[in-house]
Amino acid sequence: QTSLYLMQDRFSPKQIRRRKRQQLIEILKRLGTSKAEHTAVKLQQYAAKVLHAPVEYVDTMQLSLAQHVKHIRCLKESVAQMEKEIALNLAQT
Could you tell me the sign of the dihedral formed by the alpha carbons of 20, 25, 26, 31, in that order? Predict the structure, then answer.
């Protein structure tokens, strides 16, 4: 859940690096990440080390990633709904 939230809008290593650590910690805590402080530090350290995409590709890559996140959420919602339907059918038999 946390990773999808962070990737849903204009995600990039640069954006993670620039984010205020306390703000990142609060987001991680709100989304139920254990060891939010440690995770925030690791995320920002990792973001500083990763390869950087050419500037001309960043917008397209961000848009593509945002669409993939929406797709993943849709699939998760569909699976949850199917599980409910299956449970209901099993309960009735």
Answer: positive
